[in-house]
Design brief:
The chain is an alpha/beta fold. The protein has 13 helices and 13 strands.
């Protein structure tokens, strides 16, 4: 199918004009790694620096900024995470929040000494848990998952038991794009008496998430992929309200104190999800996320997901027609019900094509050993852009 009818029928086409242009880029196919900047984000950054920062100076903390991690967290929970207010904070990096929540979770189950994870999860998730296991004397129970798929309820059921304290998986697999069944997997973890934690980095803003409905205990994710927060934008953490008085994070800083400015002699946890905070919130880095969440709410996550499915189906259609005959295989699920927002194409030697692709203005993403990830962000990517990028890839392989 050509791109013309697809772009003509795209109800989200107008949103592309809300992003800043990249004149030298023919096809940006890496929205699953870093989203494009919004025009509104640039304007808000300038306004914030000239207005709130320059105008209010230190008074901005007492007037407004102290509440941003919670206010922005509530907004994110409402628009993208399916979380009621009072359960999400925006702060730190994904790695730091992973450590905080995972350490808190295993400490909340002191009689259980095992953590279950899978071999193909994103490196940070695995490395953080390895560190916690060494720190706390825990055993890691590894589930071997296929790089072309991901964790399933059946695999977890065989791995959990009375010694399991925590299970940690990714909602959308970073390599294949496989969507895990959060509801079923979380239920299995709970039946075993364990806590269930999820990494939402590759799903937030692209795939509908319903944390409260699914009974998730803890979750983390970044905001610079489909949420367009910008390079190094702060991450988010979700802690279910029923656990907030018992699951206690280990980095006790003044911003998570009951009364930050009392400067008292000992730490007392703030009530609710504020206790997840540690140091000074990265206020300036939060500014673009406000604009992005307004855009996402306007478009609607259901419509974003619908276009994401059409975009990835188009990628697979072009791959089957142009690339499979050249030795490329589709390493992502073909069933859109279990495929996230990107498609991984596999072929030995893809790494050597990165430089000529970039020189031609086509920017995909590469993951070793031989995976080229095509990640079209629904709100900023046209079907024409996908067509152009895939045609350049085809010609380079030839």
């Amino acid at each position: 199918m050509t791109f013309g009818p697809l772009d003509a029928a795209d109800p989200l086409a107008a949103y592309r004009s809300q992003f800043l242009a990249a004149p030298d880029v023919l096809a940006y196919l890496d929205g699953n790694s870093l989203g494009k900047p919004l025009v509104a984000a640039a304007a808000r950054m300038d306004s914030f620096i000239r207005g709130q920062w320059a105008g209010r100076l230190i008074q901005g903390w007492t007037d407004e900024w102290m509440e941003w991690p919670l206010r922005l967290g509530d907004r994110l929970g409402e628009v993208a995470l399916g979380a009621a207010p009072g359960q999400v904070v925006v702060a730190d990096s994904t790695t730091v929040l992973l450590y905080k929540l995972a350490r808190a979770a295993v400490d909340a189950r002191p009689d259980r000494r095992e953590v279950v994870l899978d071999t193909d999860n994103f490196p940070t998730d695995r490395y953080v848990l390895e560190g916690i296991a060494a720190e706390r004397g825990l055993t890691l129970r590894w589930i071997t998952t296929s790089p072309s798929l991901g964790i399933t309820p059946e695999l977890l059921a065989d791995a959990v038991g009375p010694s399991t304290a925590l299970v940690l998986f990714s909602h959308v697999a970073y390599r294949s794009g496989f969507i895990a069944d959060i509801s079923a997997i979380t239920r299995i973890a709970h039946d075993a008496g364990a806590l269930a934690m999820w990494d939402l980095s590759h799903s937030a803003g692209s795939v509908p998430v319903r944390l409260d409905e699914w009974g998730v205990d803890l979750a983390v994710g970044c905001t610079y992929k489909y949420l367009n927060g910008g390079p190094g934008a702060p991450a988010f953490a979700y802690l279910r309200s029923e656990l907030q008085d018992t699951v206690r994070q280990p980095i006790w800083g003044w911003m998570g104190h009951r009364a930050s400015f009392e400067m008292g002699p000992g730490h007392e946890f703030a009530p609710g999800v504020r206790a997840l905070l540690s140091g000074t919130p990265p206020i300036l880095a939060m500014v673009p996320l406000w604009a992005s969440l307004e855009m996402l709410e306007s478009a609607g996550i259901a419509a974003v997901r619908e276009k994401s499915v059409r975009l990835t189906e188009y990628v697979i259609e072009l791959a089957d027609e142009w690339l499979v005959p050249l030795g490329v295989s589709v390493a992502s699920p073909r069933d859109s019900a279990v495929r996230g927002g990107h498609v991984t194409l596999s072929r030995p030697g893809f790494e050597e094509l990165l430089a000529p692709l970039w020189e031609a203005g086509v920017i995909p993403d590469y993951r070793r050993p031989d995976g080229l990830r095509i990640g079209p962000a629904p709100l900023s990517t046209s079907f024409e852009e996908v067509h152009e990028g895939m045609s350049v890839l085809r010609d380079l392989i030839k």
